[in-house]
UniProtKB/TrEMBL annotation:
Protein name, per record: Radical SAM core domain-containing protein
Keyword S-adenosyl-L-methionine: yes
Pfam families linked to this entry: Radical_SAM (PF04055)
Keyword annotations from UniProtKB, A to Z: Iron, Iron-sulfur, Metal-binding, S-adenosyl-L-methionine
Record-annotated Radical SAM core domain positions: 1-206
Gene source species: Saccharothrix mutabilis subsp. mutabilis
Signal peptide from the UniProt entry: none
Length: 323
């Protein structure tokens, strides 16, 4: 869920093109209803991102609505705006806070387009852990920072983080203009996988790379929405993630997914009604065609599935049909 695109930074890799002058946001009353509908559809985790979620005044109320609906909750933040007051407002309402840390200090500050962000992020991690809130670190993998994952791990572990998640850069939003040519290739993905294995062993961090082994892709098509889905299957049992954008759009898989596949807008109809009316067949056809192309094509041992799927959603449907 993206309740707002307001942010205290204007990051070079921001897929939602958020910033200090972007005031787009969704009222808490509407989002609370969306959360209840999502829980009824089978979703059990709410991740709040942005923009900067801690600049959304109703963040505590949103997290409370999710908890009341039986959901676990996570928040993704740049941690620059974190202080004791803001942390206190969400204590007891969030299961994990994910802090973005995109390399060593020079690299992180360059991507954030502001000096001092690296130091502030580490301070935010320490404040969260001191408050008893579990913290993970999210790193956007680029062509230039794979060799810095060890530095990130040391900084994260020393600050009290428990998890390191690595997500390959996709040229969406601001990144499509400011970081062209920096999307990691098969070499960076393979290096990151090896490095994360070492990090898990040496630093005791849980690690996650947002790329899947080609063998898993081939063996389990159902995990990639590439197998038939029963008409009565609850949305939350197979469509993950479901994204609510800051303009109310409900889309599958990722922010900015092509509107040909969207469910609709929660300003116009409830999420429950959008889900009931939605024709899932075009998305499932897209997933199957993309899966088949990757299985049959020349790819590396690791595949950034969601990135491939987002890019496939932008192509004319006739170009992917039957492939």
């Amino acid at each position: 869920m993206h309740p707002t695109r307001l942010c205290n930074l204007r990051c070079r890799h921001c897929y939602s093109s958020s910033g200090p002058d972007v005031a787009e946001s969704v009222p808490i009353g509407l989002l609370s209803r969306v959360v209840r509908d999502a829980a009824a559809l089978g979703y059990d985790v709410l991740n709040v991102t942005g923009g900067e979620p801690f600049l959304y005044p109703e963040l505590p109320g949103l997290l409370r609505a999710a908890r009341d609906a039986g959901m676990r909750t996570t928040v993704t933040t740049n941690a620059v705006a974190l202080n004791q007051r803001r942390i206190g407002l969400v204590r007891g309402l969030v299961d994990l806070v994910a802090v973005s840390l995109d390399g060593d200090q020079p690299t992180h500050d360059r991507i954030r387009d502001q000096q001092g962000c690296f130091t502030k992020a580490l301070a935010g991690i320490r404040r969260l852990t001191e408050a008893g809130i579990p913290v993970g670190v999210v790193t956007t993998l680029t062509q230039g920072n794979a060799t810095q994952l060890g530095d990130v791990a040391v900084a994260a572990a020393q600050s009290g983080a428990l998890l390191l998640q690595v997500h390959p850069l996709e040229p969406e939003g601001a990144a499509g203009l400011l970081m062209t040519g920096e999307r990691p290739d098969a070499v960076e993905l393979a290096y990151a996988a090896v490095e994360l294995g070492r990090i898990a062993e040496e630093h005791g961090l849980a690690v996650q790379l947002d790329a899947v082994p080609r063998t898993l892709l081939t063996r389990k098509p159902e995990a990639f929405m590439a197998a038939p889905v029963g008409e009565d299957a609850p949305l939350g049992s197979w469509l993950t993630p479901l994204v609510i954008e800051s303009n109310g759009a409900a889309v599958p898989v990722a922010y900015g997914f092509d509107r040909r596949y969207w469910l609709g807008n929660v300003y116009e109809r409830s999420l429950a009604e959008l889900a009931a009316r939605w024709d899932r067949r075009p998305l499932l056809e897209l997933c199957r065609a993309t899966w088949q192309r990757l299985v049959e094509g020349r790819t590396g041992p690791l595949i950034a599935w969601y990135g491939h799927l987002v890019r496939a959603s932008r192509t004319p449907r006739s170009a992917t049909a039957g492939r």
